[in-house]
Amino acid sequence: MSIENENLIVNFDLPNRGKPWSIEEKQQLIEEMEKRLSTVEISKIHGRTVFAIEIKKKELLYEMNKNGKTIEELFELFGFPIKTIKEDIEFYRNRLELKATNKKTKEPGKLSKTSDDQVLISLKKISNELINLIKLIENS
Predict the structure, then answer these.
(1) Which neighbouring-strand residues pair with 3?
(2) For position 128, what pLDDT does the model report?
């Protein structure tokens, strides 16, 4: 079952949802980014959520930059706005730092304050997405 419009895709039958990414699949994503395919198109190809594709894009940009590609080279390669590339790299860097901090400070079975805040933010986003989905269904 899936519901979609140009800004939202909710698919409950994604074959790769939650599965680890293979090296081949990451390489395929890089090729699709080079071809300037939309996140929605890539999501359909990979059988993954748009969110998963966005996070993996950020990870790949971060890794490529860490391994020597400049922001300008990433712009030339993928065509993403330079501001977006910088923001994505910073986002992923912060994500890694947060994970490392949580591993160091978390007691077994207990979330850190930062994790609690993240959960609340995620729940708010999910809630907003559900509201938009309900509106979409009502307007169908």
Answers:
(1) 10
(2) 74
Residue 108, SS3?
coil
- Please give the Cα distance from 39 to 4 (Å, whole number): 13
Alpha carbons 40 and 53: distance in angstroms, whole number: 9
Residue in the structure block whose two tokens are 């994790």 = 115
Name residues whose C-beta falls within 8 Å of residue 96's C-beta, 6 or more positions apart in sequence.
62
Residue pair 28/16 in contact (Cβ under 8 Å)? The answer is no
What are the mean pLDDT values of the chain's consecutive 10-residue runs (140 residues total)? 48 80 96 95 93 95 97 96 95 89 63 59 76 79
Scanning the structure block, which residue is given the tokens 């930062």?
114
H or E stretch at 8: strand 8-11
